[in-house]
Amino acid sequence: MAEIRLVGTAHVSQKSVDEVRAAIEEFQPDIVGVELDQGRYVSLTQETTEEPPITEILKGGNFGRLLVQWVLAYIQQRIGAETGVKPGAEMLAAIDEAKAHQKPVALIDRDIRITLARFWGRMGVWEKIKLTGALVYSLVSVERQQIEVDELIDQDVVSAAMEEFRKFSPHGARALIDERDAYLAHQILMLGGRYERVLAVVGAGHIRGVERYLDAPATLPPLATLTAESKGGLPWAKILGVAVTALFLLLIAAIALSGVGLNVLLAALLYWILINGILSAGFTLLAGGHPLSAATAFAVSWMTSLNPLLAAGWFAAIVEAKIRKPAAGEFRQILAAETLSEMRRIPLFRVVLVAALANVGSTIGTFAYFLFIFPVLGIDPATVIVDGFSNMLQLIQGLF
């Protein structure tokens, strides 16, 4: 039976670095497992890393997920600057100390791309909205508040934080915490099958979950279910897109057949173009986008709002990329940025921010249209809907 020891850490804590070194010196493990995947290991241990091509980033369309990843990295970077400890320093200490004792190192965390894909894919629309607000608040807070990082490894503090996050985003917590607890436990148990003494260095937030699985391995979910592409739940974004299209077409048909007049119908169509376009273009400019990118968002948002497979931000991002011309190496520059201003000056970040905010503006415009179109047109919605649908049914019956 292998002897397994866990060390819980905070990722930007000098105390954690010291504890990791002391644990390896005292425990003398046969192998050291670290909460890293191959990509993060290379990023920590090498000066340069292979980055995804710019075209691949733009074609992927996962702009919201990319922004979440970059903002989280920035927040961690800022906390690290406050404490004087580079993010991931405790993992580097574990790697260096293991090598100094001529012990092998195992990477025991799930691929970050899988984790982020499952995290973003599992969250509902409301969870994503709340997450966006929380990240904006964190960006402001991290600039102003002094953070006692060493308190973050206190188990009571960690447990309270995990429970709050679970209430805030139950689906996100499942992918970011619970699934990784299980994945880490699987990897540690596999190491335990090959080595007598295993030391695993993991974030403090995973300690209790991993321990539960190590105490009861039979409760572990199959490893394949933790690495498969996330199916998520129902494709709510597409369902909502189809519903918006259907609602708009029914609304226009009702107005056209209600007898309120051609001028009202034309005004309804014009307001659809203007409300979607102005808000999408406005948010593009808010992101720091070029006027041509904003003009593109304005021109296409009325159409993309009616097609769940398209988004105004994609077109605005293409134009922005043509103007800003992101270059190789900028992905890493974004992750290393020390201030928000520095991050915003990087062309690739600007392109992704333009894409995300143009989509936000278009979405707000769509909902604003349905909320305000009847007061703007100065017509009674009940009359339009009742008369319009009544005439529509008569027309259908006449055809058949």
Automatic annotation (TrEMBL):
UniProt keyword Ubl conjugation present: no
Transmembrane segments: 236-257, 264-287, 299-319, 351-374
UniProt key word Disulfide bond: no
UniProt KW keywords: Membrane, Transmembrane, Transmembrane helix
Classification via CDD domains: TraB_PrgY-like
InterPro entries: TraB/PrgY/GumN_fam, TraB_bac, TraB_PrgY-like
Top-level lineage group: Archaea
Pfam families: TraB_PrgY_gumN (PF01963)
PANTHER family named in the record: PHEROMONE SHUTDOWN PROTEIN (PTHR21530), TRAB DOMAIN-CONTAINING PROTEIN (PTHR21530:SF7)
Protein name listed in UniProt: TraB/GumN family protein
Organism expressing this protein natively: Methanoculleus caldifontis
